[in-house]
Amino acid sequence: MRPSRQPEAGPELLPTAQAILGRANGENFPVASRLLPKALRRDLLALYGFARLTDEIGDGDHPPAEILAALDWLDAEIDRAAAGRARHPLLVAAGDTIRRHRLDPGVFHQLVQANRQDQTVRRYGSFEQLVDYCRLSAMPVGRMVLGVVHADSAERVAWSDDVCVALQLVEHCQDVFEDAGRDRVYLPAEDLALFGCDEADIMAARPTDAVRAAVALQIDRSRSLLSAGAPLAASLPGRLRLAVAAFAAGGLGAADELRRRGYAPLTPGAGTDIGRRARRLGSLLWHTARLAGAGVNQPAAAIAPVAVTSPRASR
């Protein structure tokens, strides 16, 4: 249940719309592919702006009480957006998208709840617990996108959930050391114990063999989930098929880069070299082509090196 109070957030917790949207080109996935019609790109950027603003508030360097107050404000702003009364420019845009496509505001509130949970839950004991967190932090994004393109059948939502959890896992693996700087560890404790991984190495940003093994397991799981969700792109028509395939392919490209690095998480503050960008582009194009051609009865081959239970199995 959402809090009833609706405090105003201090301006220091609210980045500008320009700063938020300026980050779109640095994501693992194409936020609003130019393959898509202008109106749809506008809607996707509105969804991205809301999701990134939510994460920026949740990850801010402010006392937890201030962050929670800002998230309370954001919850109230979502309701104002759905009613056409939003105040923040990014929520004005999101509200227009919500109303035109009759999106469920509840999925927007779920993203806020994920960031609220980040303020109090900093470790996950099992993979299943981490997937439960992804139900709030990742699955709603795919459901928003399917709602915008009016393709939100139960089957597509299930595929989308698998893809979104996979992308979240890859992001967690990239950012193990950065997250540790916020005292958050998204690698499940049971996996760390399995490989004898000392959390002190994570907190000190030391990519030991045990850290790499724990990361590799999560990447294997992400590939399995991407395989389970591979039919999503091919179930969609025309340019939308390529755009959604590119979205999932971004995760596979990031997974490829982690494998090339020996599953070492990224070092906080490290720049992106030209070679890495070129490899990621080539990988993105390759995986997009494969995923766009993966039929409902023919998932993309060789994505999944290990078996993992799909999140849909526990609904």
Helix content: 55-70%
Any idea what the CATH superfamily of the largest domain is called? Farnesyl Diphosphate Synthase
Straight-line N-to-C gap: 20 Å
Number of domains: 2
The number of helical runs is 15
Structure write-up:
The chain is mostly helical and 315 residues long. Helix content is 62%, strand content 0%. It has 2 domains: 11-120, Farnesyl Diphosphate Synthase (Orthogonal Bundle), CATH 1.10.600.10; 122-297, Farnesyl Diphosphate Synthase, CATH 1.10.600.10. The chain has helices spanning 17-21, 38-58, 64-82, 89-101, 105-118, 127-137, 139-148, 154-174, 176-180, 189-194, 199-203, 209-228, 231-234, 238-260, 274-292.
Features:
315 residues; mainly alpha; Farnesyl Diphosphate Synthase; 2 domains; 62% helix
Can you summarize this structure?
With 315 residues, the protein is mainly alpha-helical. It is built from 15 helices and no strands.
Topology readout:
Elements: H1 17-21, H2 38-58, H3 64-82, H4 89-101, H5 105-118, H6 127-137, H7 139-148, H8 154-174, H9 176-180, H10 189-194, H11 199-203, H12 209-228, H13 231-234, H14 238-260, H15 274-292
Helix pairs in contact: 2-4, 2-5, 2-7, 3-4, 3-5, 5-6, 5-7, 6-8, 7-8, 8-12, 8-14, 12-14, 14-15
